[in-house]
Recover the amino acids of this structure.
């Protein structure tokens, strides 16, 4: 017996929640309990009094599943608002990565050159290594780490995606 | 600010202020301060169960019968974990319930302390919401908020975990004047007027409409059931009900088609399949109702009224989704229908077709003089008791489906059953909870001999509080529904579905201080039931029924509404892997 696959699309959701103990477990647990994907999840408080956190979730699934994810998030008691940024329209998506590269000679020079092209900053340097800080879309960071692999990539740390709509309106 | 008092006293005061009359519980180390506070007051009655799972189901039964939230009090660790099944059950069936669990002192949380478990972690996804309260000053506010959340919107269970030191520490408590608007939780009660208008126009134009009603109507209160009758009287549509909705529309009404779904009637399922409009009221297109989704009611427009937005378009895509309280929505529809002066369509051809399906007599069963047919036992029980408008609870399995098929309900809040989670062991504690709510009512748990043993210890609770509950066991010595599926799917290989060592239920009843009655032959049935009803105290009836009878009609898992099995002879015997993978 085979389990048939379904066509899926990727959506970026912005979720504002009460900044309380266990809220991340509530959100992440809802995804795992109902079998939904989390491709990226970031969270930080965003109001002056630190009472509200903003969670950015990148998820994927068929349109009906995306609709369910939004409804299921929305009915959690501490959730204030769920916005599907992908459905909303133009929005800016950014991720930050720290990329450690080790090497000498040509590899080291090539790494520096590529970093300049990708506007990555050097945040740590030793005789044999660099740590680059790079921001951009997840695709840009994928590309950068892929190139770094050729010139001595040691390890990568990524933040996951944050996103905001373009224009003057708040969600 | 009032005088300081302990967290435990604040809890009891808040419960009292909320009008709580009864708490189902079991004491233990981590709730001793609360039990002491309970001891020193006389407003709240405490019902001591025999296992915490019994407390949760009793609270469910109380809530389902009275419409008030059920309250549970248990200790930390095993107290909380024992209650989890009842909590999950309440979530699935949308039962308002508040569960207070003791917790180890805050300083010991996370140290694997004695009787510690991560109660909020364990219950996070089987509650509507839960709290760990670390500050006694927050207890009052949390308790009031918990009741608001448990009872509003789509009702459900809320857990409040209270560490022991927080129960002992002191703080002030002021009773809130009015329910404070919640920061983020704002269930939509009033439906959008434009959507109601669209629904009424669709209903008025339909030639083959059907009202598909569910437990949400019971949750919306008795006035919602009256509103359903008004709406039906206006539009004339036939009415079917889910397992959870039985009683929201009178079974004796000529437009009632009986239950739909896996063990529903032929006429209900065929009407759903051939309808041109389904108006779903407080039901959720559960897999037991829809059968195979791609064959579900292909020709109909569908309207879904639900207070939980996430229920709409979850399993079945609908043409019109309306978020709101189903009672309010029906009242709005009735008002608008009258205001527009709609005339109902001529539904004669539709009812003529329905009569054709009814003629199939899908609930008929082969009579027997040698043995008691379980369906017959239910019908006789109904005949002997329906004038008393009894409250019926059930366990889970064949007996539950037979009760749903053959025991007719005229009113809401009379039928207590575990629908979503399907919890064996629900019926006896639920009957106890209902009897606490209605001491003078006739409360009967229609049980199976396997299910009843899952919470058999609660017989002692009934005795202690002099609750005259009746347990009517349809004893076929099998886990009948398991056996039925093994007959259907595994060529009758009865793997571990036979109970080789059953207790003598009559002696068991006597050991617990109950009256025990055994019914073995068809001609003993009516006398046995009369005997049961004549006893003032609790009675357990061991009714020996036909052992191999299976429950029909049935839509096999993964089949369409039009592919019902009517009789045992139609059972194929073996199924492929795809069918075996279905629940």
């Amino acid at each position: 017996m085979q389990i048939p696959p379904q066509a899926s699309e990727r959506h970026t959701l912005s979720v504002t929640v009460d900044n309380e103990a266990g809220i991340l477990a509530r959100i992440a647990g809802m995804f795992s309990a109902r079998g939904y994907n989390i491709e990226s999840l970031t969270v930080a408080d965003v109001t002056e009094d630190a009472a509200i956190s903003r969670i950015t979730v990148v998820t994927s699934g068929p349109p009906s599943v995306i609709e369910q994810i939004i409804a299921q998030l929305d009915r959690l008691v501490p959730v204030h608002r769920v916005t599907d940024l992908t459905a909303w329209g133009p929005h800016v998506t950014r991720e930050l990565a720290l990329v450690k590269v080790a090497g000498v000679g040509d590899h080291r020079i090539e790494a520096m050159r590529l970093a300049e092209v990708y506007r990555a900053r050097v945040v740590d340097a030793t005789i044999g290594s660099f740590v680059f800080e790079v921001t951009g879309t997840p695709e840009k960071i994928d590309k950068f780490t892929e190139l770094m692999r050729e010139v001595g990539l040691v390890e990568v740390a990524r933040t996951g995606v944050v996103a905001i709509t373009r224009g003057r309106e708040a969600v | 600010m009032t005088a300081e008092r302990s967290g435990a006293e604040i809890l009891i005061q808040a419960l009292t202020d909320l009008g709580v009359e009864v708490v189902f519980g079991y004491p233990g180390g981590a709730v001793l301060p609360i039990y002491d506070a309970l001891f020193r007051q006389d407003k709240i009655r405490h019902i001591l169960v025999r296992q915490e799972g019994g407390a949760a189901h009793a609270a469910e039964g109380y809530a389902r019968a009275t419409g008030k939230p059920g309250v549970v009090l248990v200790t930390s660790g095993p107290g909380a974990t024992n209650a989890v099944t009842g909590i999950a059950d309440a979530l699935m069936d949308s039962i308002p319930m508040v569960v207070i669990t003791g917790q180890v002192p805050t300083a010991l949380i996370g140290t694997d302390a004695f009787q510690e478990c991560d109660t909020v972690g364990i219950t996070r996804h089987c509650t509507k919401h839960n709290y760990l309260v670390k500050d006694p000053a927050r207890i009052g506010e949390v308790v009031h908020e918990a009741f608001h959340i448990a009872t509003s919107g789509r009702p459900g269970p809320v857990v409040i975990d209270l560490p022991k030191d927080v129960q002992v520490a002191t703080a002030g408590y002021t009773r809130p004047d009015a329910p404070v608007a919640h920061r983020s939780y704002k269930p939509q009660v009033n439906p959008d007027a434009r959507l109601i208008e669209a629904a009424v126009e669709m209903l008025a134009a339909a030639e083959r409409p059907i009202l598909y009603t569910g437990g949400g109507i019971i949750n919306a209160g008795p006035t919602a059931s009256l509103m359903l009758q008004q709406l039906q009287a206006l539009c004339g549509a036939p009415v079917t009900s889910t397992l959870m909705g039985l009683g929201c529309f009178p079974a004796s009404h000529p437009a009632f088609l009986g239950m739909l779904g896996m063990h529903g009637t032929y006429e209900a399922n065929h009407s759903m399949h051939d309808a041109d409009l389904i108006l779903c009221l407080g039901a959720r297109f559960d897999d037991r109702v829809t059968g195979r989704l791609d064959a579900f009611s292909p020709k109909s427009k569908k309207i879904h009224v639900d207070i939980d937005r996430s229920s709409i378009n979850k399993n079945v895509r609908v043409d019109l989704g309306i978020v709101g309280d189903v009672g309010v929505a029906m009242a709005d529809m009735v008002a608008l229908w009258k205001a527009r002066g709609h005339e109902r369509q001529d539904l004669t051809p539709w009812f003529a077709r329905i009569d054709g399906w009814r003629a199939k007599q899908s609930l008929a069963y082969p009579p027997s003089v040698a043995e008691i047919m379980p369906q017959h036992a239910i019908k006789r029980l109904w005949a002997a008791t329906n004038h008393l408008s009894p409250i019926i609870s059930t366990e889970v399995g064949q007996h539950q489906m037979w009760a749903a098929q053959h025991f007719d309900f005229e009113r809401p809040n009379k039928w207590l059953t575990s629908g979503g989670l399907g919890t064996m062991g629900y019926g006896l504690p639920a009957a106890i909870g209902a009897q606490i709510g209605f001491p003078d009512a006739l409360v009967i748990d229609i049980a199976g001999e396997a299910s009843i043993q899952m919470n058999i210890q609660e017989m002692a609770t009934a005795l202690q509080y002099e609750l005259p509950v009746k347990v009517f066991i349809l004893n076929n010595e099998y886990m009948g529904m398991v056996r039925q599926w093994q007959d259907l799917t595994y060529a009758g290989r009865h793997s571990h579905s036979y109970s080789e060592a059953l207790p003598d239920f009559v002696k068991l009843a006597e050991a617990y201080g109950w009256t025990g009655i055994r019914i073995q032959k068809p001609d003993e049935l009516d006398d046995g039931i009369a005997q049961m009803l004549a006893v003032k105290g609790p009675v357990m009836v061991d009714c020996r029924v036909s052992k191999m009878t299976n429950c029909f009609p049935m839509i096999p898992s993964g089949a369409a509404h039009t592919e019902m099995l009517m009789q045992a002879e139609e059972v194929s015997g073996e199924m492929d892997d795809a069918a075996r993978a279905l629940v």
Observations:
- Chain A has two domains: 9-88, 91-164.
- The longest helix of chain A spans residues 138-150.
